[in-house]
Amino acid sequence: MGRVFAIELEGPVYTCLECNTHLGVPSDIISKEVEVFTYVFSRLFNTFLVEKTSNPALQDIFCVGCFNDVGTYGVSGPNSCRVFRNLVHGPEGSDDEV
């Protein structure tokens, strides 16, 4: 197996709740969908995509640190990442902290 290299982001960041790997920055948030408890990001870091067998147009987003399924790619549009709010820790001091 290869070694996993994670990118350390600067400033306020959204992190994986399980392993604290940096996943995104607040400036990349397109929307916060309160009803379904998700964030829609324009881009994410330290993640990889796995194609769903049930629907090839959608892909699951996994954290590279702990291999936790944190969201879905391609739901809100071709270049959007929908991340589950209960699997991500918001920036320190924000209203997104868990």
- Mean of residue pLDDT? 85
Strand content: 35-45%
Total beta strands: 9
How many individual helices?
0
Helix content: under 10%
Q: What is the name of the CATH superfamily?
A: Peptide methionine sulfoxide reductase
Structural class: mainly beta
The CATH class is: Mainly Beta
Strand order of the largest sheet: 3-4-8-7-6-5
CATH fold label: Metal Binding Protein, Guanine Nucleotide Exchange Factor, Chain A
C-alpha geometry: globular
Give the uncertain stretches in residue-range form: none
Quote the distance from N terminus to C terminus: 33 Å
Protein name: Protein yippee-like
Plain-language structure description:
The structure is a single chain. By secondary structure, the protein is mainly beta. The protein has one domain: Beta Complex (Metal Binding Protein, Guanine Nucleotide Exchange Factor, Chain A). Helix content is about 0%, strand content about 35%. The protein has no helices and 9 strands. It has strands spanning about 15, 20-25, 30-35, 40, 45-50, 60-65, 70-75, 80-85, 90. The strands form 2 sheets. Strands 3-4-8-7-6-5 form a 6-stranded antiparallel beta sheet, with no helix packed on it. Strands 2-1-9 form a 3-stranded antiparallel beta sheet, with no helix packed on it. Strand 7 (about 70-75) and strand 8 form a beta hairpin. The protein is globular. The model has no long low-confidence stretch (mean pLDDT about 85).
